[in-house]
Amino acid sequence: MSELNPVNPVAMTVFIAFFVLVTVIGFFAARWKRGDLTQLHEWGLGGRQFGTVISWFLVGGDFYTAYTVIAVPALVYSVGAYGFFALPYTIIVYPFVFAVMPRLWKVAKAKDHITAADYVQGEYGGKWFPAAVALTGIVATMPYIALQLVGMQVVIKGLGVSGEMPLIVAFVILALYTYASGLRAPAMIAFVKDIMIYIVVIAAVWLIPSKLGGYAHVFDAADTFFKAKGGATGIILKPAQFTAYASLALGSALAAFMYPHTMTAVLSSSSVGTVRKNAIFLPAYTLLLGLIALLGYMAIAAGVHVKSASDVVPALFGTLFPSWFVGFAAAAIAISALVPAAIMSIGAANLFTRNLWRPLVSPDITPAAEASTAKIVSLVVKFGALLFIVFLPTQYAIDLQLLGGVWILQIFPAIVFSLYTRRLNTQGLFLGWLVGIVIGTGMAVSQGLKPVFALHFGDAVYPVYIGLIALVANVVVSFGVSVLSPRRVVAVV
């Protein structure tokens, strides 16, 4: 928006009321499903006792974030159909979760693994390759947390409040109840967050088109807008975009559950059946995501004009809804930042403590000290992300998050392939990981940190997701080196 809106007292009151509600829930969570929070599996995995309903809200809460609600409509508003790649991505991912994650859960439960790097260490032994897996997860997660702050920052600005202080206060509160309650806090808050988001989106897709002359007018307006804009935009994909669209969807789907926050949510489930049931029911969020994406077209039809595409959703709601609903919607989106940010910081803290600090610095650490270290690291991670947003341009966080997707995809062979084959060994996987990281980073840097790279075959050009290209190189090297070197020995745990 061209300038900051005046503060709306009604919207701000509703926003603050819901924020206070989730703060109370966050601190109360330590008493829910009681456990010994001086143990890392209790603090960092909720004691592995979350059933189907809780896990459904928790996974949905950390997978569909505040940045999703802000960024997906913003991308659709800017480029049209290309912005819908998130839909096939979330359709592809759940069959993958159904097939793969129960196997991983079984091994993790049997051997008391808390992180993906724990699993790698249990399968291959040693400490340096698991440390590389852990470091990849932490580095890929940091800008992801920062982007949750971007989402919160956008909605607070939409309410007419400038400056960094509201963001700082919100994250101090988040840090305190995450420290106190661990994974139980975002699990409880996810109930409130998801119900609020469903209410906001259903109300928006029902009422906004009725105010704009129906969906036919919304799509006609978007089509006219993109035709006038020209270039690669449009409400239908251009043939030149097919490979980029498909490879982004596939690569993002393969990467999605390699992140520490989604892995943590899965491993906190109470049983294999819970993991499978969630894979069956989580596509309900895909429907929600499709509806959220349509807000980009609705903003075009409503004549919303913003300086930054990220402001589209707050501007649309501010234009068409009463003040109380604007406050409610802003609170829903802001809380959608708190849930994943909490889980991400816990997942990163688990990795640091279990797979970097314990093996490399303090091998004799006690279980209580391990949990205490993780709590402190979770604070450091959150405030690191906060400093990122306060002192560096937002674009850095966006660019690094795109790189993070390329990086996190490179741990895929070590985790997923190891569940199905014994042919891989540490040398092959470690070298494959390194090749994937180097190629992926080099390609991304050469493209100005854009996510796709144009592959040339004769006169034909195929833009492909860089993470997928790097993963192919990783897989070739991992299997090639493993075939030529001694087969791995499974470590006794």
From TrEMBL:
- Give the subcellular location: Membrane
Topology of this chain in the membrane:
Multi-pass membrane protein
Keywords (alphabetical) are:
Membrane, Transmembrane, Transmembrane helix, Transport
Major site of localization recorded for this protein: membrane
Q: Does the keyword Transmembrane apply?
A: yes
Transmembrane stretches in the record are 12-32, 53-76, 82-101, 128-147, 159-180, 187-208, 242-259, 280-304, 324-352, 373-394, 400-421, 428-449, 461-484
Care to name a GO molecular-function term for this sequence? Answer: transmembrane transporter activity
Return the GO cellular component terms, semicolon-separated.
plasma membrane
The similarity comment for this entry is: Belongs to the sodium:solute symporter (SSF) (TC 2.A.21) family.
> What is the protein name given in its UniProt record?
Sodium:solute symporter
The organism's taxonomic lineage, starting at the top: Bacteria, Pseudomonadati, Pseudomonadota, Betaproteobacteria, Burkholderiales
